[in-house]
Write a structure and sequence with these properties.
This protein is an alpha+beta fold. It contains 10 helices and 13 strands. InterPro entries: PurM-like_C_dom, PurM-like_C_sf, PurM-like_N, PurM-like_N_sf, ThiL-like.
């Protein structure tokens, strides 16, 4: 059986493609990287815990992919180019088959987005994966949650609620989605961070956040930071065919507004930048969808319209909360 150091070398170091700006990577006491001139460094960290963010039926390859993806989604929300990641991996035992699949998922997404694994740590204990990711953004151009203005248009980058629906189906809360099930499962296990879109939004979006805990919960951070409110047009919410063919209209709206794990971007754009947004995103397969508008408000409240009319919508919970949701939920 390989020890800690041989595990790192075999599964992580030997397969890693190193960027030119990595001066010292895995194998020393610390990593040394070179940041481009006139750029700011963006650092994000996310942890996934067995039994909370995934269960024992989740493929190891998916865990490796998603652990990186959720961090790259945070970088995307700030308009940053992904560059480097560090991995802290806690394992109950050295299961080499699991490690092989996990590392494959991790390396694949790193290679796709051009970022390098430059260090980390392995320990023994309950299965936990922590990734710290770093990216670069031109000086002063990082997107933030603060900056939404009354009159801004509210956008999301793609379909909402699919990952939450997949989780509900696997936990038998809803009937199976028939031919759509596999696609829903892929949305849950293999999210695609909107990295290119995030970089396109520099100088265009007034505020931005990624949707990890549910649209309403994450939009609430923008509204609170910017001291504004919002109005959402329910019939403008982007819903997949799987969603509309599996749930009732009311259920679909609730799922799109509250389910976590979508990793789409939610952002606001001023009227005079809407044309620029359309130009910058014209090449994208899934173009951002306008779902409402930011309004002046003393409180971070959200109102709803349906086909142009005020619509009262009652939701049990606005999104995922680590300290309220049952064990086994995901975010």
């Amino acid at each position: 059986m390989r020890n800690e150091f041989s595990l790192i070398e075999y599964y992580f170091q030997q397969h890693q493609r190193t960027r030119d700006d990595v001066l010292i990577g895995i194998g020393d006491d610390g990593a040394v990287t070179r940041v481009q001139p006139q750029h700011d460094l963006v650092t994000v960290t996310d942890t996934m815990v067995a039994g909370v963010h995934f269960d024992d039926t989740t493929p190891a390859r998916a865990i490796g992919h998603k652990a990186v993806a959720v961090n790259l989604s945070d970088l995307a929300a700030m308009g940053a180019e992904p560059c480097w990641i560090s991995l802290a991996l806690t394992l109950p035992e050295a299961d080499e088959q699991w490690l092989q699949e996990f590392s494959a998922g991790l390396h694949e997404i790193c290679q796709y987005y051009g970022c390098s694994l430059i260090g980390g740590d392995t320990t023994r204990g309950p299965l936990t994966v922590t990734i710290t990711a770093q990216g670069q953004v031109p000086e002063g151009q990082a997107l933030t949650r603060k900056g939404a203005m009354p009159g801004d248009w509210l956008y999301v980058s793609g379909p909402l609620g699919d990952a939450g629906l997949a989780l509900d189906i696997t936990q038998q809360r809803y009937p199976e989605a028939g031919p759509h099930l596999q696609k829903l499962i892929e949305r849950l296990h293999y999210p695609s961070p909107r990295v290119a879109l995030g970089q396109s939004l520099r100088g265009v979006a007034n505020a931005c956040i990624d949707v990890s805990d549910g649209l309403l919960a994450d939009l609430g951070h923008i509204l609170t930071s910017s001291q504004v409110g919002a109005e959402i047009e329910l019939d403008k919410l982007p819903l997949s065919l799987a969603m509309t063919e599996t749930l009732s209209q009311q259920q679909a709206y609730a799922k799109a507004l509250t389910a976590g794990d979508d990793y789409e971007l939610c952002f606001t754009v001023a009227e005079h930048h809407r044309g620029k947004l359309e130009t910058l995103t014209a090449h994208l397969k899934n173009k951002p969808v306008c779902i409402g508008r930011i309004k002046k408000s003393q409180q971070a409240t959200v109102s709803f319209k349906l086909e142009g009319e005020d619509y009262p919508l009652t939701l049990e919970q606005p999104g995922f909360n680590h300290f309220l949701d049952d064990a086994g939920a995901t975010s």
